[in-house]
Amino acid sequence: MTTTEPRPSALFVCVHNAGRSQMAAGFLRELSGGAVDVRSAGSMPAEMINPTAVEAMLEKGIDIRAEQPKILTAEAVEASDAVITMGCGDACPYYPGKDYQDWELEDPAGQGIEAVRPIRDEIERRVRALLTELGVEPVA
Question: How far apart (Å, rounded) are the C-alpha atoms in residues 84 and 10?
Answer without folding.
Answer: 7
